Amino acid sequence: MLFRGWIGTLAAWLVLVCSTSVVAQDLPDEIPEVAIEIQASQYFRPALQFAWPDSTGPLAPFRARVKLGLELSGSLLLLGPQALDTLGGKGQSTPEARFGSITVLSPSKPVDKDGKLGVQLGLRDRQDKKDFAHWSPAWTPERTEAVADSLVDAILYLLTGKTSLVDSRIIMARRGRDGDNIFVSDHYGGELRPLTHTASPKFSPRLSPDGRWLVYGVVRDPGGADLFIQGVDGNLNPIGTPQPLLAGPQSDTSPAWSPDGRWLACSSTRDGNTDVYLLPMENGRIAGKERRITFERSIETSPAWSPDGRHLVYSSDRGGGLQLYRISVDGLESQRLSWFGYANDCPDWSPDGQWITFVTRERQGFQLAVMRADGSEAMKLTNEPGNHFNPVWSPDGTQIAYSWNGVTWVCFADGRGRRRLVAGNGASPDWTAGPRTLEGQR
Question: What is the rounded distance in angstroms from the CA atom of residue 400 to the CA atom of residue 412?
């Protein structure tokens, strides 16, 4: 974090984890977009015309869920039902022309199958004027969301080669009725529920790659922090009781699982200085001798793994201000990545290994930013008063979740489309792929 010694670090955690719902209620639900200077090719989104006018009939909930899933996918540019033809008509150019061929999603007629709700839908290439996919789903009202999510999955896969985030989950530290605990929600911000039920302030929840183990930090009274581990099932329901993973007089923070789940990186003061350690993990336990990989006399914290598991990026104040560094897992190869700003912290590596998101300190507070994995092309994604912390990538790399003044927000990878995830507070998010259940007809 941003202070020398664990006392200042602990104070910063308390700001992140213990933000009250009063602060959350003072924040706007919609905030101005930030103009981003970025290569458009990096975030190109195929254009999809959602040619399904608003309706108030029995199919309205299904239509609304499909539209919301496509809008929040981060993979498509969703156009309204009145979008103009890509060719412009009579040689006239249109705003949509730059996106190339537009795909149209439109319903033809309702389907009545054995008393179930249903509809026929098709995908058509606007330029070639040819249908290339169609569906005739039928469902009972209680299955509306599941069938709509399955349709969103199918559409995204056909147009982008990616599946949607409808089954993904976002885990966060949050103040609830039972104290400061770890909660989970879907990526829409619904189905919010607690995973822990003790009063001690908690932070930095991180789910193992196999989805079986949840590690998180607990603020210790009278001072310091420990790491705990909790077993969970495939639906992220707790199994058993939380167990201490690292506890003692030292402070252990910033847990981060390796991509294969065999190692847990963390920051610890166990040798009298704040350094990065690697813990060998097996079946929810430390299975061997820990490995210290930083040996500077400065603060080294906030480790995050590269997708190939060969490097970590972390924060260090060895040069004065806090900056980002990359280090190999054997500790032999180290490189400074950032050379700007008052301080840079909370890095996270994109799933494709091309980008690193982080926060950078300015006069009005810490702002969300991204840069190439080699430190080039750094750019801010936010520019408003307050502190942005703990950004994490979505499993498909199209979006970023982060906390802003103790509230969890989500944006697209270029900083646009920002939305508040849940009402009230939430911090230190982690985004996990979650179980997949595809339904409906294709």
Answer: 6
Residues whose CB is less than 8 angstroms from the CB of residue 54 and which lie 6 or more positions away in sequence, other chains included? 60
Per DSSP, what are the bridge partners of residue 266?
277
Q: Which two tokens stand for residue 75?
A: 């993979």
For the segment 185-230, what is each residue's pLDDT rounded down to a tens digit? Answer: 999 999 999 999 988 999 999 999 999 999 999 998 778 999 999 9
Q: What is the pLDDT of residues 329-378, one digit of tens each?
A: 999 999 999 998 889 999 999 999 999 999 999 989 999 999 999 999 99
Domains of the chain: 6-30+169-432 (2.120.10.30), 41-71+76-160 (3.40.50)
Are 390 and 427 within 8 A, CB to CB?
Answer: yes
Nearest to 58 by CA among 116, 135, 104: 116
Peptide bond into 435 cis (omega under 30): no
Distances 37 to 71, 320, 369, 378, 398 between C-alpha atoms, Å: 22, 29, 12, 10, 17
The model's pLDDT over 78-97, given as tens digits with 9 standing for 90+, comes to 888 876 544 344 444 444 44
Q: What whole-number distance in Å separates Cα of residue 45 and Cα of residue 102?
A: 11
Average pLDDT, the chain: 84
